Amino acid sequence: MVRIMELIESRGLELVGRPYVRHLGGKIWEMRAQGWDRMAHNHYVAVTGKIVLILRTFVKYTQKTPRAEIELAVRPLQEVE
After folding, report:
1. How does DSSP classify residue 40?
2. What is the pTM of this model?
3. Are the beta carbons of 1 and 33 closer than 8 angstroms?
């Protein structure tokens, strides 16, 4: 995750792209890092300029991101806005 965050810091969120970053919709983006046996995911959002706020971290067991995880990421975003 640290390496991906450094890429975002040096290149910018939009220029990092897959397989590390993908847009989920609205202001929600997903950062993905492969571990030894699982894939960890952070949902995050670019709030302003170069500020990236990590909203939620979880381990994904299926290919599709569960809708409940996205909804849990949106709640703190609403508090920040």
Report:
1. E
2. 0.68
3. yes
